[in-house]
Amino acid sequence: MTPKFVNWSNSTFYFYLCIPCVCLLLSKLDLNNNVMMVKGKKCTKLSIGIFMASIILVCVKCFSNTGIDVQGGYQIQFFSSNALSGTNDDTVEIGFRLLNFLVYHLGKNYNLLLFICGLLTLVPVIYYIRKYSNQLDVSLTIFLYSTMFFFQGFSLLRLYLASSIALLSIDNLIHNKYYKSILWLLIAVFFHRSTIILLIVIILYGLKRLKIWESTFLSLILLFVSISLRSTIINGFSGRYEIYKSQTMSELGFALFFKYIPLFLLLWYARKNRVGMKYFRISYYIVLVGFEFDVLSYFIQVIGRMQGIFLPIVFVVGYYVYSIKDKLVKNIFTLFFICYGFIQLIMYIKGSYQIDGLMPYSSYLNFVI
Hints:
With 369 residues, the chain is mainly alpha-helical.
């Protein structure tokens, strides 16, 4: 079990900062030697730089047992998974309980569960970066993922696993495959119910007869209704979420606006200059709904933990920065979002290293830093 009091570690802090930097530099390598990914008769090339960055992320994530929940609640849950029901916490979603049940009966190896969860979390991200590599600033996308959604998933294992699965829902949505999109979203919900929030994105995107300002107005009304029903929503919390009933509201802070104003600014520039209009509606709704739930988290604090489901944001940034034709503007946005990613990571570590048990970084291979 991780101690309740977590000491600050400079070595761990610098280690966490180095990982995104190394991934950024590796993914910028422009090498002609490529790893061949053979699939039938087709052959896809994957840059060695991206491949090496992916391996680093896999090693850091899949062999990690860092995190309060990983060393506590998830471990207890796993060793009580002799059956699908009657576990330590039956409020955990059925998909994650089923995964626990299967791995438990493969040999009662908790480290194997952590490895599988790590792979399931990273593979969809790496796959879509590769799939859309000709439409993304790949290095920036990998960098933003490693600063905004990678370390944050150490303790919140289920949430970030479900968020990665939900990428398949968004991918089907942009190709107008609504039934498949909803199906993949339901699968994600079986691992963490908060991913149902992305249904709002699916609905807004499906209402194509509505102009963007009309759907924005509609979503803002829903936000204000949710804020007005704050007490009713909080009183509905039960089980492990009851601790959030006593938490008070917070004032809207710098972190909220620093996170979302740059994203809206990027989308504003894209629309003004008719850049990347093919995916503008879906990109806008992802950012808009993410912003609104971040606002809502200042009134209902537990919702702040759900920001992990807005993983597609890193693809939005990577796509639009890549699509900008003006080299000067492109470079300005690239440098800005590199600084943006660093600040997001530093703010997260400084604010959550104790509550998420981020220090020291530890691996079940007996590696600690």
